[in-house]
Amino acid sequence: MKNILNRLFKLLRLFRSKNSQTQKINYECRAVGFIDVLGFGNIVNSSVCNGAPSPKLENLVRILESAVPSFDAMVDPDVPIELIPKHIYISDCIILSAPVKTPNNPDYNGLEILCMRIIQIGLALLEHGYLIRGGVSVGPVWHSESNIVGPAYQKAVKIEKETRAPRVVLSDEAAEFWHQYSGTHNKMCINYRNKTMVNILHDYYMKPEHKTREDAIKKINSIYSIASRKLCETIDESARYKWWWFMEYLDKTKNTNPFLTVNWQKKISL
Questions:
Q1: Which end of the chain is more exposed for a tag (fewer CB within 10 A), N or C?
Q2: Could you give the count of Cα atoms lying within 13 Å of 82 in the half-sphere of its Cβ?
Q3: How many Å apart are CA 243 and CA 63, to the nearest integer?
Q4: Number of neighbouring beta carbons within 10 Å of residue 99
Q5: Which residue in 206, 186, 190 sits closest to 198, CA to CA?
Q6: Which CATH class for the 25-200 domain?
């Protein structure tokens, strides 16, 4: 028995030694997004108090686990894997990062790719009645399959913690990069209420591929119905504020985006 334990300890030390060698930290300039699903804690607490598994919690966990992989599966197979955003899923948080630039493709913009993925995640969760909040930063970071380290990640987390409204806010550095390389014509990020934020309601992502404007209008009408219902059902003051804020943003979008204003009042049957 003693010999078996000694061999096991030797194997463990060998594994740790090899793992430490493979986990060498090399920082690179990446765009980083930290996303938190709002209301997750209340669902968990309710599940614990009830003393039984919560179908609502299980469904949300399933959505979080499958969201990014499902979007990754739609990426063209010719796209180099290192250009697809990496992600880590922890409890109610999704952490994403992508290289800001790549020497092999001067047109590649990692911040745009990251914001695209955040929009996709935000819309997927909205369909199930969940809002997101988060931060986006650019800078040095090391992102492995199981960990992420660096100032850009810390900044993204800090922004999320300091943000009250249900939105994903860009750091000053990320906003500067966005305005320099993407400009005001790209509406994946917009200036709203004194902050540069990811535009979760971007019209392009309102409609599936090869679908029509009517499909996009149907989508945003569905989101409007979900948000209205949530605002009416929610009792908690903090949660109500978040849905009220989102409704203001939704109204602003429909009033300023010609692509989505057609038939806004005349609801398309869902």
A1: N
A2: 9
A3: 21
A4: 21
A5: 190
A6: alpha beta
